[in-house]
Design brief:
252 residues; alpha+beta; 9 strands
Amino acid sequence: MSHINQSGSKWTVNELAAFNIDVVAQDVPTFFGDPALPESTVDPLILNHIDMPPGLASKSTRLFFRYLRDSTRSPYGAAGEDFTSNILSLLDFDEPNRVIHRRMELSFLMCGERVDAKPDICVLDDDSHVLLVQEYKCDLLVDDPECMLIAGAIAALSELNVCRRFVGLPTIAAKTFAGITMIGSAHIFYKIPITSQLVASVMTAQFPEQTTVVQKLVPPVPNIDEYLADGMQPLENRRIVLQCFEAFKKFV
């Protein structure tokens, strides 16, 4: 496996193939287990106005429109991360007793060496990561956030079990992490099952016999070809994506 990258933040489809990981796109009923998306709980102003309307609005609504504007103008980097963190907070992904962190570095053993993984956003409960977010940095031909997101999930289970062993607790054999990739205001959702066997295979550079199947949902917006460019600017896109966020909460 000499061709694989020695950093989780540089993973590509080569690493997924090397460790028998498949990403499978699914529709809404298959991914969420329900054909109907839940209604959004956000302020109706957000759902019915492209830009911030004049007049009084709550602080959370004003911030949504401001972060949406900034992420549209600068789709790569801090603006997109700010917007996604704002949505997670707005929809209470940090409840109960969870926290949202930015740029929290993780690490894991890969081919006998300790390497890094750098999710852009993490939601943590008392003892574990429950949601990881990875941004498209600049060029889809260079950076593959989907692969880096999966590397982050491997690192999250690895670090969790290291901590549990250290305090004498039994390790966790398997955990499914919720994941999101994003570019600007466009989001794609994932369920990432990580097992201790997969972690061991990555650590020892062995090809796992069992395929790891990562489930992926692209929100069913009307114009999917333009989704990465349009994101949540069009109102119909915005309503559907926020409904997907609402449905996604049950996996976190």
